[in-house]
Amino acid sequence: MNANGEIAARRAVSAPRTEGFGRAARGVLAGLATLALAACTTPFAGGDSPFAAAPSAPAGERIGEGSVAVAMLLPLTGAGQGQAAAEDMRDAARLALSEFNTPDIQLTVYDTAGTPEGARAAAQAALAQGAELMIGPLFAGSVQAAGQVAQSSNVPVLAFSTDATVATRGVYLMGFLPQPEVARVVDYAAQNGRRAVAALIPQTTYGNVVEAQFRETAARRGVRVVQVERYPAGQPQQAVARIAGVAAGAAPQVDALFIPESPQGLVAVSAALQAAGFDPSRVKPLGTGLWNEPSVMSLAALQGGWYAAPEQSGFQSFASRYAQAFDEQPIRIASLAYDAVSLAAALNRTQGTQRFSEPVLTNRSGFAGVDGVFRFRPDGLNDRALAVYEVRGGGASVVSPAPRALPDA
């Protein structure tokens, strides 16, 4: 997946509402390395935000004057959508430090220029200045390059990529990974009596990842996979015609149809399914977090469908505070930067010299962030507590709330 594709996939979440959020406390939960990030209003209401006149952050800009050095690696001069994303994530980091009560963190932002070479140089500069933790980079190639530098000095990395191939011991992914979304929605379908499923999956890297997880979860839950059809991106018509025999008509042979497609691709898929006689009231559509986009909610073939994604209340509160501080809405993944910096500050406060050690970062109880409970696995991947939504009448509602704790298994 290229850089712009990685950004586009991660923007697929409904635009946040920003009205009506009250003040709440935030603090650190009791227990080993468990972080609580509760909603709170901006501390700058009623006056000019101190962020308003701040200059654009150059590479190596220091944010905070604490004693513990943490680096953030972002493509501030990268091409395409990466630069805009980086600016929002940098500002989210600044917001996190401003809202944390006297964090003892010295955060330095380094520019990767959106390239592996730039990420490698940024990581080397961060190590030279004593960084104990690296947050970022954003794209897979840059994560791999920076991770190699960080690992040579046993410095952990909290990266924003969604590419599972760059995760490894010591390089932990903060991003919204497709695997937990697939597992959650298939689990929920099985719990609700769906025992025979088919799938329409695009021939993309994302499609390869979600197909593997789909088959694994279905096998684990005893769900029969009747048919899987792959199709060139944007051209689902022939695949729909092939799968219509089991998923359409008066007597379909399956009771669910998995469609892990982007909002743009779902337009063509929905039209082809309608033309083939697909009835979503007979065969339940299933999707991933890519569905979490307003344009998807009115597609006829997806009505009544289920998909898994983070609950929105935490992000909506974060977005409200961000908008008050910076006078604009944040990109969806800005919450990852906020959570990463808040986590660094909380672990520094509660875990002493072991603050960024592997046992602390991979604590199975996990952490509670803007997007719900999450934890890092020893292999660098993450688990997230996700909600299941149902598409209905131009919107989506939660039919299964995100759990407040992650399972042991």
What's this entry about, in short?
By secondary structure, the protein is an alpha/beta fold.
Describe what you observe in this structure.
This protein is α/β, with parallel strands linked by helices. The protein folds into two domains: 3-175 and 312-378, Rossmann fold, CATH 3.40.50.2300; 178-309 and 388-400, Rossmann fold, CATH 3.40.50.2300. 35% of the residues lie in helices and 19% in strands. The protein contains eleven helices and 18 strands. It has helices spanning 3-10, 81-99, 116-128, 140-152, 178-191, 205-220, 237-247, 263-275, 313-326, 334-351, 358-361; strands spanning 27-28, 35-36, 61-63, 68-74, 105-111, 133-135, 157-159, 171-173, 196-202, 224-231, 256-258, 284-287, 306-309, 367-369, 372-376, 382-384, 387-392, 395-400. Strands 10-9-11-12-13-17-18 form a seven-stranded mixed sheet, sandwiched between helices. A six-stranded mixed sheet has the order 3-5-4-6-7-8, with helices on both faces. α2 runs parallel beside α10 (334-351) and α3 packs parallel to α4 (140-152). It is elongated. The protein starts with a helix and ends in a 9-residue tail after the last strand. The model is unreliable at 1-58 (pLDDT under 50).
